[in-house]
Amino acid sequence: MNFKSLFIFLLTLTATAGVMAQNQCAQSLTDAEGKYQEGKLYEIPIILSECLENGFTKEEKIRAYRLITLSYLFLNYEKEADETYLKLLRLSPEFQVNEEIDPMELINHHAKFTTKPIFYLNPLKIGFNFSSVNVTNEFSLSSPIDTPDKYSPQVGFNAGFGAEMVIYQNIHLAAEFLISGETFHQQTTHWDFYITDMDYSFTKFQVPIMVKYNVFRGKVNPFVSAGVSPVYVAKTSVNNLEGVYRVATDNTSGYEEFPVQPRPEISTTALRNQFNYSLLFGAGLNYKIGLNYLVFEARYSNGMMNMVKTENRWREDFVEGRALKFPSGHVDDDFKLNSVSIFVGFVKPLYKPRKLK
Amino acid sequence: MFLPNSNYFMSYGIQDSTLRINDYVNSSVLKKFNDRYTAMTLSNDGSLMVAGNEKGTLQVWDTKNMDMSESSNITEKQIYAIEFSPDDKTIAVGDEAGVVQLGDVVGTDIFFSRSISNQKSRINKIKFSPDGKLLATASLEGSVQLWVTENLDKMLPVAFEDHQDYVWSITFNKTSDYLLAGTKDGVLKLWPTRPELMAGDICRYLFRNMNKLEWDRFVGEDIGYINTCERAGVVPTK
Question: Which residues of A touch B186 (CB under 8 A)?
Fold first, then answer.
């Protein structure tokens, strides 16, 4: 017999042994169910013990644990019934008794337990955001003849993870760690003839702490949330800075435009307050898939502090400040940064089967 | 277990192996056992308490001082039912294998000499009829068997097998004419204990005498045929 034949023989033997063991265990479960019908309760845990160690499928294990629990209940072994039922609930956290056909002893026993999770893990949540600016004070080199700056949102991203803890019934305390990139566009007109366009960009780390109220009702479970988040602004920049001079011409067309040299990226980190915080308001739904949830969430973040480090606004004694002002003539307005975020995430409930006190 | 002619009753908790004495208001611990008893009863005169455990050991206490007077291993199986006859002269003990042992009670001594075995699962309850003439055994296999105490060795029991689940509990009415059986699925069944009553019940449904074929099949070929409804004094209405 060559090596290949030997390998195939051993593989076949192993597979056959596995199928035989499974058949024997299926038979032992049938036997145990027969013993239960006959009232031979002491024999049931003995018949099933070996296959519970190795051999039963998950569904068979659930049937076996149910049967052993019933046996212990009718034998008045309360502690053993509890232990066996906990094994069943660990295997099948959403196991429900059938009130139509299950014995009252099992229905009453089931009522003494809960599997409700205390913790929920949110290993990944991703999404996008739209940032908007709340200008609190306007500043300009050309003030007061400037027109107001125009701000428009742009799409940024969010990614992170988190966890939730049940604090009371359906009220959860949620904590997250998020990294987000937020960006918006600004257009400024100086002295009525010089127009600059630029994108503000922020890389932020946030630790939202939120209270959530969940409505668990089956497949689709809505929630609302509110909280606060410390914000660390790790990096900010102005990107795609472009400018155009409009020079009046003699003809009737009005203007001739002269572009200034574009600046792809200017770091503005030194011009920003790096620590901030925001208030959060959200709503969403948990969509149940098996034992876990797919989460869809919309969240509004209201920035609470000025993003601009005011003492550096007019300084020109460092590179970033000069680069912004010359030749674009840009000076930061005081502003707070708000955003609307849309998240998709995955939530894994950590079921904790336990006996109620 | 009510103490005779008193408002006190004893209760035993299998989880804490504690025997308590109670009235309708108070409860106090009478004795804490080391063994886990699966069956316990008082004699009708209240002088003896008998308990059986999962090792098949039967223990007897004199209730005057709660001293154990006897301990004997009467079976290898778990004991789940113990009952005194109304005159306290006989005790019946049922085990996990469906065997009922009968013993003669002399003072605080019990002498086992007979056993009956016609059920295959745990005897969960044993009851003597109030007149002492019948002995009923209830089993988890879903059957109740009714024995005539004077002819335990000679007559086969009447078997009531039409239960869909474990028979948890049985009791006779005061006249011993009926036996009430309660099962795990929440059903109570009332069984007549005398052939006349059984025949009368049949007549209410059959409206005529059983024919010979039906008799042979449902009563037995070896039992002499009788006109069931006439014997029961019930006139068929159709």
Answer: 104
3-state secondary structure of A103: coil
Return the HEC string of A46-74. Answer: HHHHHHHHCCCCHHHHHHHHHHHHHHHHH
**B78 in A contact zone (CB under 8 Å):** yes
CA-CA distance, B16 to B11, in Å (whole number)?
12
B18 close contact with A: CB closer than 8 A: no
Cβ-based neighbour number of residue A257 at 10 Å: 10
> Is B142's CB within 8 Å of A39's CB?
yes
Pairing between β-strand B27-32 and β-strand B67-73 as defined by DSSP bridges: unpaired
Of residues A260, A300, A298, the one with CA closest to residue A280? A300
pLDDT tens per residue, chain B (238 residues)? Answer: 888 878 889 899 988 889 898 988 999 998 888 888 999 999 999 899 999 999 999 999 988 887 777 788 889 999 999 999 999 999 999 999 999 999 999 988 999 989 998 888 999 999 999 999 999 999 999 999 999 998 888 778 888 888 889 999 999 999 999 999 999 988 999 998 887 787 777 777 777 788 888 878 877 676 677 777 766 555 555 4
Q: Which residue of B has its CA nearest to A39?
A: B140
CA torsion through residues A5, A8, A14, A17, sign = negative
Query: What is the sign of the dihedral through the CA atoms of A288, A289, A291 and A296?
Result: negative
Q: Which residues of B touch A78 (CB under 8 A)?
A: 15
The interface pTM score, or ipTM, of the predicted complex is: 0.83
Distance (Å, whole) CA A135 – CA A152 = 12
The answer to whether B121 contacts A38, with C-beta atoms less than 8 Å apart, is yes
From residue A152, how far is each of A127, A187, A245, A299 by CA, in Å? 20, 9, 22, 19
Q: Which residues of A touch B15 (CB under 8 A)?
A: 76, 78
- The closest CB to that of B14, out of A38, A76, A103, belongs to A76
Give the integer Cα–Cα distance in Å for A177 and A204.
11
Cα dihedral A17, A19, A25, A29, rounded to 10, equals: -160
